[in-house]
Amino acid sequence: MEITVTKEALGQLQAMNQAKDKNRFIRINGELVGGCGMTVEYALWWDERGVDDLEHHVEDLTFLMDKATIEYIGADRLTVDFRPQQGFRLVSPQQIVAYGLVLKERWG
Predict the structure, then answer these.
(1) Domains of the chain: which residue ranges?
(2) Helix or strand holding residue 27 (H, E)
(3) Dihedral pair phi/psi, residue 68, rounded to 5°
(4) Strand 87-91 and strand 61-65: pairing?
(5) Are the beta carbons of 6 and 79 closer than 8 angstroms?
(6) For 6-27, how does the pLDDT look when each residue is reduced to its tens digit (9 = 90+)?
(7) How far is residue 2's CA from residue 45's CA, in Å, rounded to a whole number?
(8) Strands (E), 48-108
């Protein structure tokens, strides 16, 4: 999967990365949730590299995704965008996958 980061998102992420440990990366995560009506919930968090993760480097940032998340997105390209009124957005060529995302600590 190819990941593109808009200049707006890149500026936000680089500012947030200044205070972070260089061994941490940004995980794009999709998780199947729900009961009778299943849906995929997306999140962004600081994380460590996993054995089977796809890595994508954009300038001084490294993005991670597992195979399940790639399947949930269902596209070969993904754009990470930022809008002040919406937060971070994940956009595929077919649709806005998620919006209103906040980059957070994984366990916090």
Answers:
(1) 2-105
(2) strand 25-33
(3) -65, -40
(4) unpaired
(5) yes
(6) 999 999 998 888 766 666 799 9
(7) 19
(8) 54-58, 61-65, 77-83, 87-91, 96-101, 103-105
